[in-house]
Amino acid sequence: MFRALLLEKTDGKVTANLRQLDDSALPDFPVTAKVSYSTLNYKDGLAIADKGKIVREFPLIPGIDWAGTVETSDDDRFKAGDRVILTGWGVGEQFHGGMAERARAKAEWLIKMPPGMDKKWAMSMGTAGLTAMLAVHALEANGLKKDREVLVTGAAGGVGSVAVAILAKLGHKVVAATGRLELESYLKALGAASVMDRAELAKPAKPLEGERWAGVIDTVGGPALANALASMAYRAPVAACGLAGSHDLPTTVMPFILRGVKLIGIDSVRCPIPERDAAWRKLAALLPDGLPVGGTKIVGLSDVPALAEQIVAGQIQGRIVIDVSQA
Ligand SMILES: NC(=O)c1ccc[n+]([C@@H]2O[C@H](COP(=O)([O-])OP(=O)(O)OC[C@H]3O[C@@H](n4cnc5c(N)ncnc54)[C@H](OP(=O)(O)O)[C@@H]3O)[C@@H](O)[C@H]2O)c1
């Protein structure tokens, strides 16, 4: 038996309940692991708060990521004692996820943790950290320069916080756009050179404005992304990661055909393993101590439902790590 947070649907209403489950509740995948930590991501918030149709079949254990230790494996690629990370691949959406003491997975979904990497650290990054690192790699592969500022939107959230920290570590001058100006000292501790009120990016975007940004990591979508595109430097890259504000993109073709702006989509869910491996190693090298004070909070499984509402409302600062051994 193992403890899990279980999403259940009764009379059309989804609730998240702590349950004791039998191993037979887990899918028939070859690798069984003891989960140590999961995290709360925006998508988990949507799933638990029953918004955005993330989960279609119930009951389901949420948690789109987890770090743990292999207990048994019918696949030669893993053996008992291996420490592994899983993010994405539909886990916590179609398949039981990480908010439980035990999980079962396909071998091809798992990343073997490099020696020295700590499970709690890995989940202090989690899907958000991986996504931020993939976004930075995408900007670098598309000609990111250091001659101008780099914008990060949704900067005080999970992806945003890690993106600010990575870019600052790499020597970029980062502008952190946030709706929570009271978090300026947190954002500066992450490494932001300056903080921008996200209201400046909420106005309807003009087709083009002055060339301000050397690169952008956008977690918000909508007018924020459209305004960012209008202010890109010539041939500068933009990584679109999220939709915390909107899934719309009210822009024109002008940034693309007159400035050669490059808009790159970031997907962490089906990203190939070699790219993930490279991203995890780079993250560990750049942010070995994780986020600064205030960037990571450790909670138990029973704290998750209330926090899920908060993350969907944009009220979470940095990352929430779930210690699944805590009820
Ligand atoms: N592409 C991928 O593979 C991938 C992976 C992970 C996440 N994502 C997406 O990336 C986004 C961020 O995820 P996360 O886990 O970092 O979530 P998060 O921790 O909740 O961060 C989102 C941030 O966006 C800002 N925000 C929230 N509501 C907003 C609104 N209405 N208008 C403008 N800004 C708003 C807030 O930052 P401030 O308070 O600083 O303004 C909030 O903290 C989500 O859309 C998520 O689905 C995508």
- Indicate the overall shape: globular
Largest sheet: 7 strands, mixed
Q: Tell me the strand percentage band.
A: 25-35%
Q: Write down the Rg.
A: 20 Å
Which sequence of SSEs, written as H and E, runs from N to C?
Answer: EEEHEEEEHEHEHEEHEHEHEHE
Number of domains: 2
CATH class of the largest domain: Alpha Beta
Mean pLDDT: 97
Give an account of the 3D structure.
Strands 3, 4, 5, 6, 7, 14 and 15 form a seven-stranded mixed beta sheet that branches. Strands 10-9-8-11-12-13 form a six-stranded parallel beta sheet, sandwiched between helices. It has a two-stranded antiparallel sheet with strand order 1-2. Helix 1 (42-48) packs across helix 8, helix 2 crosses helix 3 and helix 2 (119-141) crosses helix 7 (273-286). 27% of the residues lie in helices and 26% in strands. The chain is globular, with a radius of gyration of 20 Å. By secondary structure, the protein is α/β, with parallel strands linked by helices. The chain folds into two domains: 2-113 and 295-323, Quinone Oxidoreductase, Chain A, domain 1; 126-265, 3-Layer(aba) Sandwich (Rossmann fold). The protein binds NADP nicotinamide-adenine-dinucleotide phosphate. The site of NADP nicotinamide-adenine-dinucleotide phosphate has 31 residues, from helix 1, helix 2 and helix 3.
Topology:
Blueprint: E1 2-10, E2 13-21, E3 31-40, H1 42-48, E4 65-73, E5 83-87, E6 102-105, E7 111-112, H2 119-141, E8 149-153, H3 158-169, E9 174-178, H4 184-190, E10 194-197, E11 213-218, H5 222-230, E12 237-240, H6 254-259, E13 262-265, H7 273-286, E14 296-299, H8 304-312, E15 319-323
Parallel strand pairs: 8-9, 8-11, 9-10, 11-12, 12-13, 14-15
Antiparallel strand pairs: 1-2, 3-4, 3-6, 3-15, 4-5, 5-7
This protein binds NADP nicotinamide-adenine-dinucleotide phosphate.
NADP nicotinamide-adenine-dinucleotide phosphate (NAP) binds at residues 41-43, 127-128, 131, 154-160, 178-180, 198, 219-220, 241-245, 266-269, 311, 314, 316.
